[in-house]
Write a structure and sequence with these properties.
Largest sheet: 2 strands, antiparallel
Mean pLDDT: 80
Strand content: under 5%
Structural class: mainly alpha
Helix content: 55-70%
Order of helices and strands: HHHHEHEHH
């Protein structure tokens, strides 16, 4: 027990959260519900082993691998949610500089259905199922080559 009467000890807080959960939930789901309570303790320097002992005393014995894996996944989900919130906030803050100007349509890609980043197996399936327009790909290649030859000085220009 801690000396501060306003804050119950961690075991009592864990038990209170666990009692509010459905007992049929998996261990990982129960851990995810407890991580908002666990994270401040980790930030305060409490060892993970001590937290796992408290969890066992509260009625949720977990293996170290389950605890660490679930903690990593929870933190990653929190980071992604925070990043999405930041992106949404910056998009809402930045006004459109030229609302009267009609934006130009994006250039037609030779490869359609290409994901911007590969993050999930679904993204890999999208790459596998991409539709490739070979004529547009040829035009893109020729345009890139013509642009590259215009940008680089030739031998005659150097003399």
């Amino acid at each position: 027990m801690t000396d501060n009467p306003l804050k119950p000890d961690p075991i009592a807080r864990y038990r209170a959260v666990l009692e509010s959960l459905d007992p049929r939930l998996r261990q990982a789901a129960k851990l995810r519900a407890l991580y908002p309570l666990i994270e401040p303790q980790v930030a305060a320097g409490v060892p993970h082993a001590a937290i796992m002992e408290d969890l066992a005393a509260a009625g949720l014995p977990v293996m170290r691998n389950t605890y660490i894996t679930t903690l990593r996944r929870w933190r990653k989900a929190q980071r992604l949610a925070a990043d999405e919130a930041n992106q949404a906030a910056t998009a809402a803050v930045e006004p459109n500089p030229t609302p009267a100007a009609k934006p130009s349509p994006p250039p037609l890609d030779a490869i359609q259905g290409r994901p911007s980043r590969i993050q999930t197996p679904g993204d890999l399936r999208k790459i596998r199922d991409m539709r490739i327009d070979l004529d547009a790909l040829r035009r893109e290649g020729l345009a890139n080559r013509a642009k590259a030859t215009q940008d680089t000085p030739s031998q005659n220009d150097k003399e």
